[in-house]
Design goal:
The protein has 537 residues and is an alpha+beta fold. It has four domains: 69 residues, Four Helix Bundle (Hemerythrin (Met), subunit A) (Up-down Bundle), CATH 1.20.120; 162 residues; 106 residues, Alpha-Beta Plaits; 42 residues, no CATH class. The chain is built from twelve helices and eight strands. A five-stranded antiparallel β-sheet has the order 4-3-2-1-5, with helices on one face. It has a three-stranded antiparallel β-sheet with strand order 6-8-7, with helices on one face. Helix 7 crosses helix 8. It is rod-shaped, with a radius of gyration of 54 Å. The C terminus is likely disordered.
Amino acid sequence: MRKILFFVIFINALFGADLASLDTQIKSNAWIVKYKNYNEYNQVVRETLRLQSKLDALKQSDSKDLAQIDSLEQRIHTLQMQEELLRNYKNEPYKELMQDISETPKITNPFLIQSGYSYIKNLNAQLATIESNYNDLQNLLAMLNEKIALLKDSPKSQNELKETQNMVAELDSAKKILELYMDIFKKNANDNIAKVNAAIKAEALKLLYIIGAMAIISVLSFIIKFILKIYAQHEESSGSYTINKVINVFNISVIVLILLFAYIENVAYIIAIIGFVSAGFAIAMKDWFMSFFGYMVIVGGGMVKSGDRIRVVKDGTTYVGDVIDISMLRITLYEDVTYTTYSENRRAGRIIFIPNNLIFTTMFANYSHENMKTAWDGVDITITFKSNYKKALFLASQIAKKYSSGYTESTRRNLNLLKVKYSIRDMNVEPRVFSFIVPNGIKISVWFQTNAYATLMLNSLISGEIIEAFTSEKDIEISYPTTTIVPKECDLGANPPNLSGDSSANRVNRVANLSKNMLSNGAIPPTNPNDSHDSPN
């Protein structure tokens, strides 16, 4: 009898240990947590309905127990709060364990290729999570069935057995739903992965085509620039810089258009927006847009190009120099030493930035338009009325022809080329000499062709040669204004000296003699070398 009792106790202990181990494993399963929340929600709803029915009956009875009514209302309020917290488990208690498939991304540019790979990775991770949840559910059902088998041998656990059987029935239904959902998810995931891979492949091919097109454009531009560089080394090509700039602008424009049409779906819509925005910017930034249009006129019309010598007047100040750059907004000018800097500005070497929009409002003078490297320059000199002005005209003409003959021939050739483009009638480019009557003599004006980039050098050379030629001739006298200073203390008498009819040399001598006489008479005080204001220091 003792052995039988001991065996029964051993079996009960072993049964209790197995059941406790199963309960521990079951409690840690995610599905059982969701099921308990769902079951608790249903219990809360049923209890709320039961208490609400009891409360309604108490309120309708003749003998109302206010304390009991308050207690029921308080319990109902607590249950309603619990119901609100568990509301997510009302219809879909296992929704969190059955993940929804995300929307397929649209890959429309290379930057979204990485998002496509991330999407595929996330889909695979979601599928792995669903499969893991399915395995957990299978393991849970196996443990619950094992628990049911153990509970059937224990007549004291009929309530727990019934509850476990209900749990198995509920979770078995969830398993069937999960199996169907998993099959649908796999099919949709595979379709989406195939679509994303196809989109990634198409976008990669598009990127390769674009890179290939850009590479071809870059290679062609490099070849053209290289040819221009070789040509510029052997030939004087002033248009190589402009062509180089045009090639750069063309390359950028083509690349922008390629990218625009490749990666913008509704190009017409974008162009319309850009049009409206540009109209607003054109009003707000009129000068910038006018400078851009000025750039188009400059480059397209060829009125000014890099290397030209131009003259621009702005706010009463004249700027003369060489164009060193033409950008979208401005012309960059290097101010050289010219007659303008000598007579007006008295400074040179500045970098002048001229807005392109000034070509519409300001007069531009181009000294080297269409390879015209020469310009007319002149020298004026005045001789006395008694001089042989015909000889002076001849000498001035011969000197001008001698030193400007090379520029004269260059001008003649370039004008012949310009006749194709412009209507040029007067082709006389030989040096010209004119004579004019002025108050103090006869002005000899000689004009000649000179280098547009170095006018002062030839002007200075011809001026010196003319002075030497005139001073070496006895019948030619240079006329220039003179000034006589007569102090107030000096009494020149009733017969002041008449200098109007004398030559320049005689007038100088008579003024010098007059000064000596005035100094000897005391009219002009002698200079004291000890005076502080006369000291060299």
